[in-house]
Amino acid sequence: MKVARNLKFTSKYLAIIILFILISFAFSSIVIQDFSYPLTGWVGIGSFGWLNYDYVDLQEYTGYYLAKNLSFNPFPQLDLFNNQSFYPYGTNSVFQPWSLEKDYFYAILYSFFGTGSWLQIYYLLTVLITAIGTFALLLRDYGFARSAGVGFIVSFGNFYAINKYPHHLQYAVIHWIVLSLIADFLIVKRIVLKRHLSLRLILVRACLLFLSFGHDLGYMAGFSLMSFTVSLLFIAVLISYRYLKGKLKLIQEIQRALKTYKNDFRSYPRTCLVLLILTLVAAYFYFSLAFQIGREAKSFDFTGISFDTFWANPLRLLVPFFPFLNPGMGYQQFFSDIPESVGDSSPGWFLVILGTLGLWQTRRQITIFIPLLIVFFLCLLYHPLLFPTLKIFPWYAFNRVGGRSTFIYPVILGIFALHINFDWLQFRQRQLLVGFLVLVASIELYTAYSYRLDYKPASLDQSFFAYMEYVKKQPGEAVLDLFFCIAGSGARPDICPYYGYNSGVFALRRFHEKKVMGQYFGRLYPGQVKPYLEAGWDKLFFPDNTQSRQSRCFNEAEWSFLTDFFKFNDFAGINLYVERFPEKCLNEFYDRLGNPAKETVIPGAGKVQFIPKSSELRKQINLSLGTKVKLETSTEF
């Protein structure tokens, strides 16, 4: 009889996993769409008129950088200060959008197999981990149907996270953070209700804590740390209260727990050992790098430097995902806010209704939800300047985008929804309510996924790879992108007037493997830009009224500066983005520097031609002079 029950349980478990796998493949056909090429391109206007100004290439670059700059002595260390970007001056590359698990995944596959669709595969795996992991964690307490439903919600119904793919992939990848919040809730629930807290659940949470350091370090890993901290403080307060009220004998309870956990370990030695090993491995590969990056970031003093900030009004929680009424319609004037992207603070009506009903019905046991409610309101009410609730945690010192908390709302509301019970309704009322919820869910799924219709992954033809291979084989350690881009919050805008076209061209390094001049950083310290300003590079940009190309050709002083800079530094050649120049100016490049040897099209940046450095100019390389070349201002045209 027991064997039959176990077989039935296993078959149902496998059926749920297979279902999630099938849904994942359907999900990938809509959201990811293509596994043929590396993740590249430019995200433009979406279905509802929302404009995303982001180069997709940035997502692979941190993995490439990790592959080229990681060493072990004996702990993992990154070479952060070099001239691989900001060539030839050099800079500290700490303010990249590090997401260490993603970066390790890409670095390993890139090192063995070269470029490929590694991040598309990684993203699909993380969505699957979110669904199956949620189901596995909740199964014991809430059964198959509820656990599977919440597994679906937090992975395939998290509209904000899904909409972040691919341009903000580091915010679309949420698996360990979702599981961390669920594990914290289960631990708190067991302690509040005085139920057995197993050693395996404690070890799972410890493992998830260190795995979370593999997420984006600027924002995402902090949510796991915040949930852990708030939950731990709540548990400490609760235990202290019980002890002071005489309801808990601390010494006896500790002794009992030690004995219980000893028995737990003996009962499940393999599971416990695997979890301990995974925790140590995650700590080794993630925590040491996270500590180094955090230390380097704090060495910069941004006092007095203003950053662009984004804030989403908490009332956006009430905005549904309907075709005629949805977050993509903006409503900035109505809400008087500055959201960063579609869906900020808007998880959808279905989840808000479901979560509210679940919370209301469990109001007599609301103590089990207190840490979740604290986290929820800290995020919902956060304003980077006026009400910086999250900055009570030191890891959120650089948090300037309030809406990036939105991805945890479906998780919290989904946990609340686990406690819904419709038995108090009459049969007819229950049918109507369930029908209404199914209708809302269906409409919102359709609307949210329709955002993906205008996303078309960039394809790369053979001329692209031939071009990059040619550049890679040319003598010279660097390539001069005309125009390169230096951008980041805190940067002067005149170092990158063509942001919409060239902010990601530095990431082409992963193909041609040459050093580059510009780069995008999440934060850019003024001192990093100083060498460019002193040399006069900002005076070489004069965009026309369309902000898409130069308004004139270079004058003699500007040509003299550009030629000297090109010949003295060890450039393999010039990537000439021809659409950034008036057509009449291109012949000047050919006459002065030679004819292009290769041509291709860069998704987002347009047509590019490679002008290799001539042997005559190569003989004049003098790196000490190269960093000292300055533009002598002139008004001649």
From TrEMBL:
What residue intervals traverse the membrane? Answer: 12-32, 121-139, 144-162, 168-188, 197-213, 219-241, 272-293, 346-362, 369-387, 407-425, 432-451
- Name of the protein in its database record: Glycosyltransferase RgtA/B/C/D-like domain-containing protein
Give a yes or no for keyword Signal in this entry: no
Q: Which UniProt keywords apply?
A: Membrane, Transmembrane, Transmembrane helix
Q: Which organism encodes this protein?
A: Hydrococcus rivularis NIES-593
